């Protein structure tokens, strides 16, 4: 059965690969990105987010079979908080009513192994309170105090917590919409390319994200996991952060999280 699926981040990396896989299997993809997409919008700000939601709704005729939020940024500024948390939450919440109209709706977001790294709890708290100005103030403070490396992990930890909280509510589970996250380790995409060009950064990354199973992944590995999560086959998995990370999370957190 052909389905209509909104995917953000389709101009590059994981989102682009996922869009290709879905189109290959006959689905209609409505891609959202800054450029080179069906809907060009900046998910880092309120205006772009509203524009993205309105345009996707227009293009899909008000009903969506699935939404996958892949768009994201990784740097040491406040930007990850804007794009990775508020951009994703706004897109998912804005498109949820269109999912609720579908017969077998599905939703997924892309988190990160970085969500298990040390975070700035003030940023995470403000994100989960839906207070973007406070979250950006906390992020600016972290950056000014030398904690810029915490803004990306904080955005991804907050996103995972948002997803878990929302997944079991009447709006998501009650409407029959599974909502999950895939959390990659290191994936070879344009986002990670600069790391591979900097020996010192690569060393830091290899220590922070150990991947004993098959090493770095290609974007197709993450796209395949997302494809399954938003397939009709996924009737009962919800609220899960699925680490597709070559064993990084199991190495970092060990067996005692269960
Ligand atoms: P990428 O850089 O290849 O693709 C990200 C896409 O998001 C780009 O097309 C970009 O234009 C779009 N985007 C960025 N800011 C945007 C904005 N404000 N509005 C709309 N679109 C915007 O990166 P990749 O690797 O494909 O990343 C996809 C997701 O995977 C991200 O959420 C990232 O945080 C996550 N991730 C990536 C890892 C990696 O090693 N590459 C590891 C863990 C998580």
UniProtKB/TrEMBL annotation:
One Pfam entry name: adh_short_C2
Record-linked InterPro entries: NAD(P)-bd_dom_sf, SDR_fam
Superkingdom of the organism of origin: Bacteria
UniProt entry keywords in alphabetical sequence: Oxidoreductase
Keyword Oxidoreductase applies: yes
Single GO MF annotation: oxidoreductase activity
Family assignment from sequence similarity: Belongs to the short-chain dehydrogenases/reductases (SDR) family.
Descriptive protein name: NAD(P)-dependent dehydrogenase, short-chain alcohol dehydrogenase family
């Amino acid at each position: 059965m052909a389905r209509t699926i909104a995917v953000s981040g389709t101009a590059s990396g994981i989102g682009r690969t996922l869009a290709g896989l879905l189109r290959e299997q006959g689905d209609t993809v409505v891609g959202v990105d800054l450029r080179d997409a069906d809907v060009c919008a900046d998910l880092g700000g309120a205006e772009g987010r509203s524009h993205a939601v309105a345009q996707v709704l227009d293009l899909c005729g008000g009903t969506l079979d699935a939404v996958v939020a892949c768009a994201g940024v990784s740097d040491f500024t406040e930007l990850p908080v804007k794009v990775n948390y508020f951009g994703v939450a706004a897109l998912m919440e804005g498109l949820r009513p269109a999912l609720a109209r579908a017969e077998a709706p599905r939703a997924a977001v892309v988190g990160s192994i970085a969500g298990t790294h040390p975070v700035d709890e003030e940023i995470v708290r403000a994100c989960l309170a839906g207070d973007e100005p406070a979250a950006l103030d906390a992020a600016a403070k972290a950056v000014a105090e030398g904690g810029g490396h915490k803004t990306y992990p904080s955005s991804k930890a907050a996103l995972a917590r948002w997803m878990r909280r929302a997944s079991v509510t009447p709006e998501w589970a009650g409407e029959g919409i599974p909502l999950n996250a895939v959390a990659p380790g290191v994936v070879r995409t344009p986002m990670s390319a600069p790391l591979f060009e900097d020996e010192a950064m690569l060393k830091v990354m290899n220590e922070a994200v150990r991947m004993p199973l098959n090493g770095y992944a290609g974007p197709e590995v993450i796209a395949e996991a997302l494809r399954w999560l938003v397939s009709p086959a996924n009737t009962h998995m919800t609220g899960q952060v699925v680490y597709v990370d070559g064993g990084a999370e199991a190495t970092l957190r060990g067996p005692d999280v269960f």
